[in-house]
């Protein structure tokens, strides 16, 4: 087991990579606790749930709404949850986002922790304290930033993950290597197929190193004034692609990373050779590096993105594998580049 | 003008007592801003509003809901509010609570400030960073703690206040004197009628001293682990009384303070003479000190209060005028005392 301590602005957060979910009771404070999970997790792991009241939400992004949050508030009232009640989110990114927001706002804030059941949640949603829900199709329009007291990353949960979900997690792991750790990127190059097979030793190292990287970035900048923006590498274009409904989060981010890598070469920041290594690793991890989208529509989607400011956008680029830099790019420059890169973002149908 | 700087955990908050609302533009950061206010304030002060988009909610506690919050999120999306948008709440406690919660959660937190238009908001809601809405009759069940960057307390707003609203504010001012400042309590004894007439010099001093007292308490304990509980003096019973629908907040708190003062005498903490001074000042300020309620129903309401923990309750008592202390009281002890004090809480109709 690897234990990573994160110092948030409000309280410390302890990430336990490799800890068994069965050991959960050791980490719960004494007193009342309530589990928030989703239908899918409950179906798979009902027998392993601790002996606590369980509130279950629908599975999927469609349930990441204020209505779900409101239903949970009412269920907590019915359970007579008070300020001393601990909230335990058991699930993937959506459960963590919803449970974290409910915990951060019920009675102005309850203590909470997570058991992350997907690779994506273990390497991403579990760290950083961002929570929230969508509103009218705007992702994470409503939320707060608050760290869970602990996150348990039990590799046993990953055994039931569909391959598409594994791939989603791999995209974030690649991202963490690209923005901050060339050694981890090289390790992934050497162990790509073992990683996809979820070999425990490889996965535990990748999850733990991802958490360390993300925690380091978040620790230097919890509210995303600058440094934290690096975590958006691949995500600006990625979110826009995800909104088309064609790509999963991981696929969209992978294409976004390939595009940002190409823009980095174009701006003279990244050697062409590094760009080729990036495309090669993404492909070996079964991640896509191209998409058939109209650049004009893509840029229009970017304009609507919540990170927009007037006609410029903060864009994360690479100076090298393992070293990210944030630059401002004008929307029209981005539009031009999107149109110029047919191997990354094609205007026509896939050949 | 008196300027009070408060150091919150997230950012400093500047309270400007005696500042004119017309000077608001000096305090707004450059860039986009949106006003959140209510129908009543808009009706009275439409002409004095700054040249900004204005979102108006219904007036009154009935509109302090998640539905109102959701409507405001959508209106902000329509206005293309982004992370750089500043939210300005202009109104009383309800507007500050709702606008503060919206600002704390839209895009995971926008910058915000208040212009407090009621005496109660100037001395209470403006300081401490608590925000939120009710859910199913539970007051402030949902919310966060976040400090506004500034609060403007313009005495000109108080001229249009109905007397009942002035009395509401006075109850909190008395409370601040009772828990922390015997000198301010004595000043109020000497200037009770001038205070009720809202003589500017008297009001400015009372508001400023109230803010300093509350800010001091909050600064020592932002999340209500201990010290902040003192601000609940009179509010435990007060909230229960308020729920009966018979009393305004100020009236309910006044009766709650009279009751807590009596309990303090009974527990041997407070001299009888101080108790008499408290009842006399409340009466001179046109605040009630008795209520016709069934103690059993009152205690039942206390049990449902969000501050409940099992069968004990944290209760704020006085050791002297200007010195509060928090003690745990069993619910049955409280029930017995409520039944024993016919001059404070009567079981029958008012004689």
Question: Please, could you describe this protein's structure?
Answer:
Two copies of one chain form a homodimer. In chain A, helix 11 (249-266) runs antiparallel to helix 12. The first copy, chain A, is globular, with a radius of gyration of 20 Å. In chain A, the strands form four sheets. In chain A, strands 1-2-9-6-5-3-4 form a seven-stranded mixed β-sheet. Chain A is α/β, with parallel strands linked by helices. Chain A contains 14 helices and 13 strands. Residues 347-351 of chain A have low confidence and may be disordered. The first copy, chain A, starts with a strand and ends in a 5-residue tail after the last strand. In chain A, a hairpin with a 2-residue loop joins strand 11 and strand 12 (323-330). Chain A has helices spanning 24-27, 39-45, 66-78, 93-105, 119-125, 163-180, 182-190, 192-196, 200-220, 235-243, 249-266, 272-284, 295-304, 331-340, and strands at residues 2-7, 12-17, 33-38, 54-57, 86-91, 111-116, 133-135, 138-142, 150-153, 291-292, 312-320, 323-330, 345-346. The A-B interface holds A 9-10, 66, 70, 73-74, 77, 82-84, 104-109, 130, 132, 135-136, 138, 140-145, 223, 306-309 and B 9-10, 66, 70, 73-74, 77, 82-84, 104-109, 130, 132, 135-136, 138, 140-145, 223, 306-309.
């Amino acid at each position: 087991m690897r234990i990573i301590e994160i110092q948030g602005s409000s309280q410390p957060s302890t990430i336990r990579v490799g800890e068994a979910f069965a050991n959960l009771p050791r980490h719960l404070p004494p007193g009342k606790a309530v589990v928030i999970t989703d239908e899918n997790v409950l179906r798979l792991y009902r027998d392993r749930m601790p002996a606590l009241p369980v509130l279950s939400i629908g599975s999927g992004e469609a349930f990441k709404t204020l209505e779900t949050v409101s239903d949970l508030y009412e269920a907590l009232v019915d359970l007579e949850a008070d300020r001393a009640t601990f909230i335990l989110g058991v699930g993937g990114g959506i459960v963590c986002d919803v449970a974290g927001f409910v915990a951060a706002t019920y009675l102005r804030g309850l203590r909470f922790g997570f058991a992350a059941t997907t690779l994506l949640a273990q390497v991403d949603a579990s760290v950083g304290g961002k929570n929230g829900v969508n509103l009218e199709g705007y992702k994470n329009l409503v939320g707060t930033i608050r760290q869970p007291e602990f996150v348990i990353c039990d590799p046993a949960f990953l055994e039931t993950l569909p391959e598409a979900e594994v791939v989603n997690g791999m995209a974030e792991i690649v991202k963490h290597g690209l923005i901050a750790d060339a050694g981890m990127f090289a390790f992934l190059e050497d162990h790509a197929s073992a990683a996809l097979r979820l070999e425990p030793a490889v996965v535990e190292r990748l999850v733990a190193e991802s958490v360390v990287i993300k925690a380091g970035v978040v620790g230097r900048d919890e509210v995303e004034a600058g440094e934290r923006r690096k975590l958006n590498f691949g995500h600006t274009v990625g979110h826009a692609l995800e909104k088309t409904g064609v790509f999963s989060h991981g696929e969209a981010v992978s294409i976004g990373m390939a595009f940002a890598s190409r823009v980095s070469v174009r701006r003279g920041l990244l050697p062409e050779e590094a760009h080729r290594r990036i495309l090669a690793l993404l492909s070996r991890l079964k991640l896509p590096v191209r998409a058939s989208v109209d650049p004009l529509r893509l840029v229009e989607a970017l304009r609507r993105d919540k990170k927009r400011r007037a006609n410029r956008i903060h864009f994360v680029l690479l100076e090298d594998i393992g070293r990210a830099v944030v630059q401002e790019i004008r929307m029209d420059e981005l539009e031009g580049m999107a149109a110029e890169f047919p191997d990354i973002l094609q205007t026509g149908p896939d050949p």
